[in-house]
Amino acid sequence: VAAVPVPLPSPKMAAVEKRRPTVVPVAGFTDGGRPTVSRTAAVAESEEDFLQQVGVTEMLRAALLKVLEARPEDPIAFLAHYFENMGLRSPANGGAGEPPGQLLLQQQRLGRALWHLRLAHHSQRTAFNNNVSVAYECLSAGGRKKKPGLDGRTYSELLKRICRDGEAPEEVVAPLLRKIQCRDHEAVPLSVFRAGMRTCFVLLEFVARAGALYRLLEDPGLAAADRRVGQAVLDTLEGALQAGDSDAGAPTRYLEAGSRLGPDSLALAMDRAVVARRPGVPMTREEFLEKAAALFIAKVKPVG
Amino acid sequence: MLSPERLALPDYEYLAQRHVLTYMEDAVCQLLENKEDISQYGIARFFTEYFNSVCQGTHILFREFSFIQATPHNRASFLRAFWRCFRTVGKNGDLLTMKEYHCLLQLLCPDFPLELTQKAARIVLMDDATDCLMSFSDFLFAFQIQFYYSEFLESVAAIYQDLLSGKNPNTVIVPTSSSGQHRQRPALGEASMLEGVEASLFYQCLENLCDRHKYSCPPPALVKEVLSNVQRLTFYGFLVALSKHHGINQALGALPDKGDLMHDPAMDEELERLLVQVPGLVNSVTASSEASCLPSRTPSRVASPWRPLHHSRKVDVESDGSTEETDESET
């Protein structure tokens, strides 16, 4: 983490602020303000110590760093969620009692890793990469029977959980999982883990957007889209992705791909398709998503 | 899905824009006042409940006024809480005086300043005598504008004064928050007899104000809409128009449309729950885990203003009834 100056809410200031209502009447009785002031300072001092001692200061510092790293749209909801998760894994709620079973421990690890992974959107590179590393550490921690390190089984299970929570149809993401999964007993290095996580999150967003695109094409009465139009959109998408592969420099390729997907060329392609061909069997949502995802997955390099 | 501005802001600006430090500081204060809670439930649990209550808007209940007005979210939450708690007043058709509404406000916020309630009443009663009776919805929507846009309205009042006295709007210097200048009520009252100021000129000044105002102000497009319907208008005419504007109410987002103010079965259940809490405040606040972060108030301070509510106000409608008329013409 880069050294971010953390503006911690000053407990001293807060304490003084808070004391004001009780202090003011006292100040009215004693004509000199000094004894009151020094008492307030002493109270503030001891409160600051108290906050240090019980760990509030450290906890808030960490929380604030997370907020700054993730820059959530609604930081207050983020904080509520953050502390809730922290409460769930505090010793008072699990560590203190009977040691949890191996299965439960594994589930807790997965839950914690998922939570870290979701703290920041994958486009926020630094934040996302930090969270991936923390998630990796969570999963690699040694247990009673478990050796340190992340095995392929845990990694695959995490991938499945992410996809399931991402609400993408199973058959749509299955080809990706086949490509980026590791064998159950294999050790998964951080680089593979990171690439896998990012690919998975990007695909989920891709599928979500493809779903939105399909809703635009869909005929509400038929609950299906015209095959000619759907296919034209998919072809245009494929063309754009291929343009992204050409040998020219990266910025030019992105521009090229973007222009192919622009509303005008897309409309042209759709129009041409409708004029040229006869209507076929309507295209369902599943089919559209599967084909769109396949275009993406084809670009993913398999593990190993 | 992404909001680049948010990600590009410097840290302090991002935190300030969303009032993160205000709430963190307040959380620490609440924690220091409830030390016994953390030994029982733990710090993480305490913070979870605090931030959840902020999300739900219940964090402002029974808090001091300085906190209630500290952020736009707090103000909206307070408006919502006021509406939710006292909706039955409107449902029963009771008309209350300014003082009685003030008592209701003090039930939720013991040190709520009388001045704000008075200002809201002036909007309803068009600056007339403020001891007249008002319907709940009239008061609520006027109060909403006065409370939520308090600082903005101070500046508007100053601009209005300047326009009345014929100053060039371009040289208008807006006081940031000096309430002293705007205390000149008689001047405003006399001015309204001269049929106020020219609407288009007024709008130019307000547009300028909205641009550089650091506090919340109503969406400029809607202010324009309000002012483009008339040739001239008075200060209170302007405030009344703001308070009755659907779009401004929606943009503010705290209250439903006027038509939906009274019927909401889900809310009735919620109301039952809240009403159970209010009269026997001490026990329920300390008992319910949800409210554990709220400071417990002495029962006498909170419970005493409850009494005036039970006056049957419907019978003695001896006032001019002007609020009733405006109310019925609206619905």
Molecular structure report:
The complex is a heterodimer of chains A (304) and B (331). Chain A is mainly alpha-helical and 304 residues long. Chain A has three domains: 1-90, no CATH class; 100-217, no CATH class; 218-297, no CATH class. Chain A contains 13 helices and two strands. In chain A, strands 1-2 form a two-stranded antiparallel ribbon. Chain B is mostly helical. Chain B has three domains: 8-56; 68-146 and 265-289 and 297-309 and 318-330, no CATH class; 151-252, no CATH class. The longest helix of chain B has 20 residues, at 72-91. Chain B starts with a helix and ends with a helix.
List keywords for this structure.
heterodimer; A: 304 residues; mainly alpha; two-stranded antiparallel sheet; 13 helices; elongated; B: 331 residues; two-stranded antiparallel ribbon; 20 helices; disordered C terminus
Explain the layout of strands and helices.
The complex is a heterodimer of chains A (304) and B (331).
Chain A lengths: L10 H19 L4 H21 L1 H15 L4 H14 L13 H17 L6 H16 L11 H14 L4 H11 L9 H28 E2 L4 E2 L1 H17 L6 H11 L2 H14 L8 H13 L7
Antiparallel strand pairs in A: 1-2
Chain B lengths: L3 H5 L2 H7 L2 H14 L1 H7 L1 H14 L8 H4 L3 H20 L3 E2 L1 H11 L5 H11 L9 E2 H13 L1 H15 L20 H9 L3 E2 H14 L7 H9 L3 E2 L1 H9 L2 H7 L12 H13 L3 H7 L11 H5 L18 H9 L1
Antiparallel strand pairs in B: 1-2, 3-4
Gist of the model:
The complex is a heterodimer of chains A (304) and B (331). Chain A has 304 residues and is an all-alpha fold. Chain A has 13 helices and two strands; from the N terminus they run H-H-H-H-H-H-H-H-H-E-E-H-H-H-H.
